[in-house]
Amino acid sequence: MKRVITLSVTLFLLSVAAMPTVAQDTKITEKIIGIAATDNRTMHHLDVLTNRIGGRITGSDAYTNATYWAASQFKKWGLEVEIQEVGELPVGFNRGPWFGKMLDDDGMTLHFATPSYTAGTKGVQRGHVVMEPKTRSQFEQMKGKLKGAWVLVTGLNDGWPIDFSMKGDSARTAIMENNITKRRYNDSIQAINRRNPEASPIPLKKLEDAPALFYREMREAGILGIIQASSTPIRALYDRKNLMQMDFDNLPTCPDIKLDEHQYAIIERKVKERRYFQLEFDIRNHFKPGPVKYHNVLGIIRGSKYPDEYVMSGGHLDAFDVASGAVDCGTGAAPNLEAARLIMAAGGKPQRTIIFCLWAAEEFGLWGSKYWVEHNKDKWPKISNYFNRDGGPTVANSLTVTPAMHDAFKEATAKLNDINPDFPFTLNVRNGEPPARPTTAGGSDHAYFAMNGVPTVSFGTGDPKGYDFNYQEIWHTERDSYNMSIPEYMEHSAVVTAVVVYNLAMQKKILSREGLYKEER
Fold this sequence. Notes:
Elements: H1 2-38, H2 42-53, H3 61-77, E1 80-103, E2 108-109, E3 112-113, E4 124-131, H4 136-146, E5 149-156, H5 166-195, H6 215-221, E6 225-230, H7 240-244, E7 256-260, H8 261-272, E8 278-301, E9 306-316, H9 330-345, E10 352-359, H10 367-374, E11 383-388, E12 395-401, H11 406-412, E13 426-429, H12 447-451, E14 460-462, H13 471-474, H14 487-506
Helix pairs in contact: 1-14, 2-9, 3-9, 9-14, 11-14
């Protein structure tokens, strides 16, 4: 009997000892939800990132400003902060305002953009307009007219600037030489076809085209810049190959203008009619001497019991600068900032370490997240999950997990349907054979985690209220601005992130990796 009593007392004491952890878990979750209901600051964070700081291309002052602002917020809320140097660029780039107009009886304000890390104008520059030459004879015929001209080039803008590297010059030269050979062949075939009108004509070889075939020669002739048609919204990227060969004594000199295709067509028609008119541009693209360093920003809530085990969540801090990077990836950065603030404001003390990650240079090739993964190999087996958000301002409303993870996520998501009935949350189990572990990097910052076997279960999202959000309309374009975000979706996603990340960090074990990927042989 004594042994039974002792055992019963022991079990009772163990259950009592366990109660505070369970109660604290529920209490903190409810506090997170409660604070967010009256004081959700997700859109404030987005406002600062996009409207106060602006387009945050890596290498810009805006990116540096965002780095130190985000770090200061983490520190103010009580997180440990790590500003991690990832690398450096040979030069930096800051975009200023840009303006343009057609000077003519039918004058109009021009709708255009320029890729990042390309040249601006030398103040306000005004000039006539010509079509680009496509053959050597055409170039020789018009080379005097090229001086002081804006040149219309062929092709439809896909976001990239004209490749002005030596490799680009070589590629264009090869096209021109091949076309010379094809023209000679075609001349001979046409002669044969004319001599044999009764026979089926021998087909001619198609000439290859590329925009700005005489790019180097036109620059040397003194053109003001090149103009290419663009669908709208206008997409503007950058060329890493061009950037990495630059230094401050070797900067681009020729503005690369991507003009609304409807306005391009009007101007092209006037040029082909040989009508005289002028275009005027003022493009303030500015460079700064390098090397220019860029950094990851990590906000860390140190685990009280398992400090060397991790739950991670993040998005990229950088953005293309033709707009202000509100969707790509303010919609990842702002909810993660708010999730960190909510956990700290609720008094959360997770058992394992939570790391909120704002990655550098995702748009340059996942450089920031790749750097962290490669420099933290010892942490790979100890990461429960990395949540990545990089898909627009839609609402986090589901998770799809492996069978082995289901119970853990069921516990972690138990309170999510108490937050807002407009946004029901669904937990799905992945069926079928596990996929192979990825061997090449994907399109966002989860890639290098996944390639090394780290779980990267991320939230599914949706547009349940039918706001007709279209990611491709905004992705890397001039429309990527604050007004394209959806506040109620963003705010709810921040709460969901905070609750799930915190609850996973409170569990006794990290997530099981059973069935995550096919077994390697």
